[in-house]
Every structure is written in C-alpha cells, then in structure tokens.
User: Fold this.
Amino acid sequence: MMKRIISLVLCLGLIAGTFLMAGCEETAPAASDEALPMTLNFVGITEDTTTAEAIDATEEALNRIFEKQFKTRIELTLVTADEYIDLVEERVAEAEQAKTRLNAIAKYNSMAQSVADKLEKAQADSSNNKGLFSKWTQNGKTIEASTLSTGTVYTAEQTTVYEDGKIETVYPNATSPIDILMIDGKEMYDYLDSKDYLLSVSDKLVNEFTKFKQYIYPTFFEQLETITGDIKAIPNNNLLAEYTYLVVDKDIADKYDFDVEAVDSYDDLDADGFLAQVKANENVTVLATEPDALGIYTYFEGDVAVGTYYNPIYGYSVAEGTDFKVRNLFDIPEYTNHLILMEEYRENGYFAEKSDAFAVNVVKGNASLPAELGDDYYVKVLQNPFVEMDAIFDGMMAVSSYTADETRALQILEAINTNPEVKNILQYGVAYDGENDEVANYDLVEVETEDGKTGYTVARRNNTYMMDNALTGNVYMGYPEEGQIFDLWDYYKETNLDSALSPFMYFYVDDEELDGMLTEILKRACLTEVFEPIGIDYDEYQRLDGTTQGNTMRREFKSAYISFFVECLAAEPGVQSTPLNFVTKGTASALDNDFIEFVLSKEGQAILKTVGYTVLDENADPYVKKNNMSGTISIMPNTGNNSIGYIEAIMSQLTAAYTAIYPDVTFKIFERDANSGYNGDLLRVDGTNYTLGISNRDLIPAEEGKNLNVTNVAKSYIDVFNNDNHDIFRISWYEGKIVEKISAEKYADIISNTALAALANNKLAALCGIDLTKYAVANRPASESIVLATARGSATNYNNNIDYLRVMSAELLFTEEEAAQYANLKDADFENAVFNYVRQNYETQNNLTEEDYVKLVQDFMVSVLEYTSPEDKTTKYTVSWDEFQETKANAQVYMEAATKIKDAYYDKLTGKVSAGLLKLYSLTDIVELVYDVMYEEYLTENGLVKAEFENSIKDIYLNEVNSSAEEFATYAKTSDEYKNVCNNLRKEYKKLLIEIFGKITYDKGESGISNALLLETLFDHFLEEEIKVNDKMCELAGIDYETFSEAQTHMENYDMYISTMKTMFVYTLRTKYTSAQIDKWTYEEAETNLYNLLYETGFYTNELAKYIGLSLSDYMLAKSNAVTYQNYMNTLVNALASDLQAKGYNTSELIKEKGEVIEAVCLEIVYDKYYSDKVSIQDVVTDASAKYVQGIKTATDMEAYLADAKEATGSDFFYMAVVNALESKWNETKSGS
Assistant:
C-alpha cells in the first residue's frame, strides 16, 4: 500500500546522526575543533590469490594509522584486474544514484517548503483582509508540509564509551562509494578520464600537497601534464626506464684480448673476429640473444615503419649536437644495417645455442646490474635509459570525481607515497609481529652484504595478500620484493637520475592532434605526387614561398597542369573568358577554310586544350583528310603581350600537326613587333598580305564593316590564370583544386576520427528524420546532429524527472517489495505504473465517486484562473468552476451577436485579412475589426478626411478645457502644458471616467488612469457619440447596445479565462496536440479538450508531479519537450529496424530504453553500415608498411628485402606524407621551444 500521500503530514525532518549502541555503552559527542571523522572508499587491483580476510586485516592496519593522523578510515575493496573496471562502473553507478536521490529529495523539499510558505501567507492575508472584497478572498485549507531527510548528517564527533572506560571514535559510513582508485596503464587512464571519473588535482599539488613533487620523480608529473594537459592522477614512483647493457664473459674476453670498452655498436663485436673465434674455439653460445637495434624508436604502435634513430647515449642533446628525424624505418641506415648484421650473425651461427653458458649477451636492467654481474662479466652501457610513455602510466592512483572529500583523499594518497609504513602495509599486508600468525602475510628479514651494509627485505609467509608493487604507491617507500636486493631502490633512483626522455616524449602528438594534421598530410601527399614529374621538392616548394625561386616553382606547377586548372576556372561562376578567334576576309581560300576545320576537329581541339584553352566541343568529330592540300597560309596574330607564350604554342603545335598531314602546306607567321608582342593589324588580313588572323578579342568598331569574317575556335581564361595576384584565384586555390581532385580519386576513404564521428552522428540524426532543407536558409542549423543534440538536451529534464520519480516513489509510495517489482521497468512503463498507482491509491483513500472526481478535475482546471483585483491591484482572487460556467453562459449573448456581425461583414473582412488568418481571430478581435471597417465606410460616405475628422472629435472635449487638437499636438508629453490639459480633462469628465473605471481607480489620478488611457477613452467615447457605429453593429445583430455591452464584458472575461487555461496548461496540451491544432480551437473545443485531457491524465499527473517537487506545468513542460526527442528515437529505430533485428534486438523493447542507449546501439550500426570503408591515418600507414615489417622475420636476403621495402614504402605518397608531416611538425616544435 501507499506509504504516504502528498496531503498528509510528513514528519521526516532533517536530523543529526544518532548511533545506537548495545549494553551499557553510551554515545556522546566529543569536543574537538578539528575535522570530523570520515570514511572513504578505496578501490584497487589485487592478485587472484588474495583473500577477503587478508584485505580486511590490511584495511584495519592502515586505518590504525589513518585514524590517528587524519581522523579518516578507508573501506578497502580489492578485486582482480579482469573484475576491476566492472567494480569501478558499479561504484560510479551507485554514486550517480546517490546524487539523483539527493537531487530528487532536494526538489521535493523545496516544493514542500514553498507550499508551507504560501499557505502561511494565505492564512495571514485572509486574516488581515477579513470582510474586504469577499469575492477576492482565497479559501485555503491548512496543510502542514514537511521536508524529507537526505540521510544521516554527521554534525559532531561521536564516541562510544565502553564499560571498561575505553573510548572509541565512531566513524560514519562512507558517503561516496568511490573516493580513491588505482590505475594500471595508459589505456585504463584514458578510459577513466574519458568518462570523467578522475578529479583534477593540479592546483592542490601546487598550493597544499607539495610533498608529492618532493617524493616523486619530477618527470612523472611533467610528462603526465604534457601528455594529458592536466594532472588527474598521482604517478607511483617507479623505475622509469632501463639501460641496455653489453655483458661479456671476462675469461673469454681476456683470452682473446677483446676490449669491451671499445664496443659502441653490435658490428664492433666481430670487427676483429672475436665472435668468430669464440664460435670456433669455445663450447658456449656466442650470442645469447638477438638484440634490437640500438636507438631505434617507432612512432606508432603495431607494424608501422615510422620512427627514428636516437643517439643511444646522448639522445636528444643540444649540447652534444644530437638530434633526431622522423623517418621511414626502411630509410634509416642504423636500422637496416642492424637487420643485415643480425642476418649475417645468424648465418655465422652466433645465435646457435651450444650450452647454458654464453660469451656475449645483451640485457636490459637498472643501475644494479654492473655490481651484480661484475665478478664474472664485463658490463658496458650500450644505451642509456630513455623514458617512454608507458612508464608514466605504469601505476597510478587518483581521486575520484565522485569523492566526498578531495582533501581527505589526497591526505591518504600522500601518506601512501611518503610514509614507508603505509606503503608496506598496502603492498605486503600485515607483517608478522610474533603473535599474529593468523593474519600475518610476511616476515621482515634483515640482510647484510659482504661489505657490511645492512637492510631489509620481505619473506612471504603466504600468498593470501598479493599486490603489484607498481600499483601501491611510491616503490622507494617500501621494502624490496622477496628475492630482490635490499638496496634495489637506490639503484632505481640512480637509473632514474640517468634517464632522459625518449624521442617521442620530446615530440608527442596525440591522436586528436594527428587527426588535425590530416589536411596537411593530404596536401603534402597530393602535391608531392604532382610535383614529382616536374622535379619540384615539396619541402623546398614550401620553404621558398615568397621568393623569386619559389614563385618560379609555382608558375611551373600551374603550367604543368594548365588544362586541368583551366577546366576548374571555367566551372567557377562569374569568371569571364576571352575568345580565341580566327579571322578571314571575304571568301576564304579552301586551304584557309580547311585549316580552320582542322582546328575545330577533335584533333585540333585536343591541341588547344593541352596549351590551356577551353575547347568548344569535347566531342568534336575527327578531322577528315582531304585528297590533296598545298599552298601557304599567312597568319597575322593580334593578341597583345599577355598571351605570347600561349599563341606561340598553339601556332607551333597546330601548324606542325597540319603539315604532318599535308607536307606541301607551308605557314608564314607575322613576327613580333618592337615591343615583343603580337599586335598585328587585322585589317592586313586581306587575302594578299595575310590570309588568316588570330585574335583574342572580338572585332573593334574600326574593323567592323571591312568584310572580315570571325570564327570562334576556343575560349581562354589565360588573363585570370596568369594573374598571380588575383584576389580569388591565387596559388592556394590551384593547390586546393588539385589536392581536392587527387584526394577524391585516391584518398576519399581516409578520414580523421573527429570527421568520422561527425559524419556518423549526422547520419544518425538524418535517420531520426531530421531534414535541414525544411529550415529556412537564414535559420538553418549547421548540421543534423546539432538539431538532435538540442532535442536531446530538451529531453534531459524529463529523463531526470523519471529518475527522481524512481527515488521518491521508493521513499513515499512503494513498499520494499513494490519498489523491487517496479525497479526494472523502462522509463515509460515505470511512469505509467506510478501514475496508475497514484490514481488507485488516491481514489481508494479518498473514497472518490465519479461525481467527486469530476468536481476535482473541474476545480483543478479553474485553479489557474487566479487574478489580481482590478480595484486595489494587490488582492488575489480565484475564479470558481461555477463562476467560470456562469461567465460562459453570459458570454453566449455576445458570441451569438458577434457571429451575426461577422457573417454580415465577412466579405469585407476577408478583403482586409485572409480567411485563414481570420479564423485565428477571437470574436472580440473580429468585432473591433468590423468597427474599423464601418468607421472607414462612415468616412467615405461623408467625404471626410480621417485626420481632419479626428481632430474635430478631439476639439469637442479639448475645447471644454480651453485647448484644441492643433494646439495640444504641439505639447511634449512631459511638458507642464500637456499635463495641465490632461488634469483639466480628468476633472471635466469626472463623472464619465468614474462610470467607466470606478471611483477607486479615478481617485488614484494618473496612477489609476494614465494620461494616454485618459485621452484614448475620451476620443473613443466622443467618436462613438458622433458616428454611432456600435448602434449600427447592434442593429445588425438584432440586439440593443446596453445588452451587447454587458455581454461584451462577460465575453472578455470568458476569453481571458480560456486563454489563461490554454497558457497555463499548454505543456499538458502539447503532449497530445500540436500548437497549430490548439491555435485553431473554438472556445468550446478548447474547454472540452482540456477538460478531457485533465480528466484522463492531467489531474493524477499533477498529483504524481508533486512527489518530485514540481507543478503539473513544469512536469508537462519537460515531458512535452521530450516528445520531439522520443519521436526522433522512434523514427531512428524504425529506420534501422531490420539491422537491429539482425543483431538480435527486439525493437519494441529497445524503444523503451533511455535515448542514450538507443543512440549508442544505433550509432554502432551506422558505423558498420555506412562507414565501414572509412580508414584512419594509422590504418593507411599500417596497411602500407605492415607486410614489410612482418616480412623481416622470414626474409632470406635481408639487404635485397630491405631495398624493396624502402622502395615500396618510399614511393607511397600518403605514407611518406605522414612521415614528412611528422618531421615538419617536430621541426616546428623545436623552433618554438
């Protein structure tokens, strides 16, 4: 049954925490000015042998320290690595549920307090205004509202006093399910950070918790901030990197007089035949391991041959002059030579295992290795420790963004990283103290070295508590692991001090930044491809930009691809072309005409196109050879200086092609003039001097009428093409066009992750039914996904309301059994279930009959008709249902009369406004419109000018106060003259004004009746006295004016009531009807439809909304806003129904899920269905090089294989564009640092 209903007294006030103790113990607050005791939740990763009992014992051991130092306890939860993320997600879900619960109760409490305040005020107002304007007095009933407790509040320290006098501090339960968490690796860090589970502690480390940076090697924090842009975790001080050591058996080295210190690279090992001698003469394995190349680092993960050679001793050092370049691995000699050398060593049998003993080995280790091996081996560093990214994230701890107290959490983390006792407990569990056999995990063993140094290591007693040292804080604070030397951490420190950054820590480009480089990479790939045939180097081209040499390169580039660029120019709107015309005079010779025919043929047009002209016909017919052509064609060019090169090219190529067909034809061409141009006079084309002219313009007036014939053979954009400083078509435009072309042809499927996400999300939104073409251009959103995001945001409040309803129904409505029954229902089903529950209980507890319910709905419907008294402007009154119905009945007289008036003037009304618009007018608006029409008719019938007539009306009342319309119009509204006239009018027409407005309003002077209202009222009165339009309208309606006027007052009230109800219940109405439908309703339809909706759902939805502290209006606003989003989800699921069903989804059940679930499921399908062909930058470079990287293992002729790999990858324009773009970015980084 229902726990409570909203009208009952709720007696769950906010109380301080009380703890009940058994027996004779008692609880009392402890006086303290320090922080209150607190409990935090700490989650982490352990091994699968760890037991719950051991975790509990470790927790208690830690809490003995934490309670004393910080008044803080932890609840330690440890699970295995494969269970850890699930645990974190569970705890986050609990935290979110707790937050939702607090928000829900806060909203309810706010509403409850508001109700109490309003009732208190209403009672006070009722008491103070007893008997005054009884119509406006509100009849309220006393309801005592109370807030709900959000939980136990620990306001003072509590202690328990036992019979033996022992006093123990009582620690409250943890208020957050996740305060501190462990992080194992970058992948986990990125995941937790992407979910916003990690709290930034940057400021705290600078201002409060400065010890972290004193105890933890600075590289950890510096690189964490460089890589992620923030500090959201505390790295666990650990070994950052390792040396690469050459280890050589001393006896063997000495036997063959081998100088280990002279070895700097692996080819030095056999430079003097050392390895060959060992193989031939010693029964040992020559080389124990096949080492990786020194100084080689790869940029990408996986089989991508992009990397660098990095000086293995100095790394990147300005002082030593050592730098690095991002390169194709197959083009790095240090890499390829190493592989060739290792092949040689394999072929020589140096890696063949002869025995467990070895002559030479290459191993990685910390600074302790030389001391450990020094008795039997020569040890030399071949490569210093260089820190790679994984080391930074190898083990971390973080404060959860859901923590109850950031400072307390950081206190715990600081202790773990700076207090050896805390570190050792968290890492090893409980130490044996001579008595605690049942819980002890290890013994502490004192160790002494040969040189007398002493220290401690651990000896495990069991494996019931096993942790990864990298995950439990600063390793330097703890004992070394069992089997490790006791001073290992000193060597770790020495190694870290020697460490430097690996190349791709100096030069770090994250995935998002690499995505952002795609445009530059595509440009580089495309331009490199088109530059190659003309001998231009891309980097030189960019470097020389703005120089004479650079400008020459750019012109060469344009000229090489002129045909393509001219096509692009021709396609641009508004670009003006010039003609290429052939000119003859009179009747041209057969030879001249045939040459023109050749130029217009397929072959001739092709020549023009290669030179840079736009041809008239791409599909021209082929030229038909004649039997015999001979003679001379004399050509006169008239093209100015700008087209010299192009004219010469076409003359050269066209004449050569034609004479190849007809060897007996010769051409005579006008030579350049003194200005080195072709400015010949076309009038000399007369059949004698010259038989054919070539011009890039139409005839000028001086040439017209001279019997010259013009034949257009092509169009030219050469003036634009040659203009290097054109406002629009600069070199970047030409580069962009060719990049666009090649990208579409070869790289259309390459896309950045950001762009792919945008494509997929826009497609998802389009499948929701969002069509941007339906928006006006001026208001069109930028993308479909923006529209969907807006709808999603609008639905957020409704989704929150359902979450709050889940909380409050459990608090106020359901028993535990009922809450469990309803808990798994989807949101829509849950809302319906609660609605029915509320309805059933309300009806049962109030013994509602149908008549009672109708009365409740009627009263609820008119409860929004609350207005301020027109008399004193302060007293509130509420219209009852009976008053509403009485007003409606009284307004019928007006509605009938107004309808007749409208019908009589319908044709004239539709002449002023459209019939569709007229339907939206209220009857009072229509009557006013008819009044205006009849007034205009009056003016027309009497031949009156409106302005003059209205001034005469104004003179009637202004003359009574010694003024006139003309004079009054000259007064400023703020002037004393204006105000004096108004005051005199107010006195002169006192009786009339009191009759219209009432004495109380009149007595208030200008504050009751403003000057503007005064003048409007007097004008309307005297205008009507003159023109009698109201009488004429009433005559049309068959009613007297007094009855019509009285009914008009009722009509205005009825119209106001209906409008108020439509406004106040608009969001309820919008859950069923559209705004367009609502706007078209008659008064009767509005009342009926609203009543039916409130009867069906509105009344009980209002009761339901109270449980989450909302009015019906607020609740239905959120619900109506969610309708659009829900419709989108319905459309989306329908659009992908077959795909969803193929994946095993039940669409009718899926649509009940939260929108975020529906979108996630459908987005996965969108990616697979529409964009599975899209690839990332890394996908492409992997595809280009993976087979060559993998093939190294099986290559039989390494040198030839690597040469082929270099050629194949080096000729892949996109692959090399990525390599070179990264190198360019590194150079920018260096120059900017």
About this structure: The first strand starts at residue 26 and ends at 29. The chain has a mean pLDDT of 89.
